[in-house]
UniProtKB/TrEMBL annotation:
CDD domains: GATase1_1. Keywords: Glutamine amidotransferase, Transferase. This is Glutamine amidotransferase. GO terms for molecular function: transferase activity. Signal peptide: none annotated. Pfam families: GATase. Residues 49-193 form the Glutamine amidotransferase domain.
Length: 243
């Protein structure tokens, strides 16, 4: 089997490793089958799509809607590299699954708009599939409604050209979409469990996702949530695309 490529953007070593481990476990792969590149640490380099079964892009503190003068050189470089890669995978209809930051990357393709209109606080919320989501080869393994961990400042307010809406919440109309047959993005995090989301709440306490006095309350609510279904997307992505 050709390996999968995992792209991360988290500068914090502990949560970066935890994210990779969560994706690895959810996909049911061995480390040599899910090769990681940390985009915040260095250039992506040349990606020959023929070398890979598929690509998974994780989340992180980067936002496409951040003011340009507040973006670090690493963020600007990663955005430029991912923009080129996104166009390539869409043109080739190459298997791609982007979570959180991934929906920002794909959402800014032609016709799309990503802004701060539909941000959601850190926690768990019910996600509902559209009719297209229920019929989709990837999302069709999910219940029509399921709880998922999320937390984001930006979201898609207008889908890019040709995108198919797959899932929504009450507070964010676009929680997942598909381009072509094989290119996907989710706003929620399929890899998270209660320990991992609590660790992220701690790790990003100074990033403006919540007020300092809310930290322990958010962690208590995250631990109390029953989030079991989203991780199934990772295994299904591998099942559909391993080659």
């Amino acid at each position: 089997m050709r390996p999968f490529l995992f792209l991360g953007t988290r500068a914090e070593d502990d949560v970066a490793q935890q994210e990779y481990d969560g994706v690895l476990a959810g996909c049911g792969l061995r480390p040599e089958e899910l090769v990681r590149v940390r985009l915040e640490a260095g250039p992506l380099g040349e990606v020959d799509l023929a070398d890979w079964s598929g690509i998974v892009l994780g989340g992180g503190p980067f936002n496409m809607s951040d003011p340009e003068d507040r973006k670090s050189p690493a963020q600007r470089r990663a955005e430029a590299e991912l923009r080129v890669l996104a166009r390539r995978v869409v043109a080739a209809d190459f298997p791609f699954l982007g979570a959180c930051y991934g929906i920002g990357v794909l959402g800014t393709l032609p016709g799309g708009v990503v802004d701060r209109t539909f941000g959601e606080p850190i926690g768990a919320l019910p996600v509902r599939l559209t009719d297209e989501g229920r019929a989709d080869p990837l999302f069709g393994v999910m219940p029509a409604e399921f709880d998922a961990y999320l937390g984001h400042k930006e979201a898609v307010t207008r889908l890019p050209d040709g995108a198919v809406l797959l899932a929504s919440t009450d507070t964010c109309p676009v929680h997942a979409f598909r381009l072509g047959r094989n290119v996907y993005a989710t706003q929620f995090h399929p890899e998270l469990d209660p320990v991992a989301i609590c660790d992220r709440i701690d790790a990003y306490s100074a990033h403006g996702y919540y007020e300092p006095h809310e930290q322990e309350q958010l962690k208590d609510a995250a631990r109390a949530a029953l989030v079991t279904e989203p991780v199934r997307l990772l295994a299904r992505f591998v099942e559909l695309h391993a080659r």
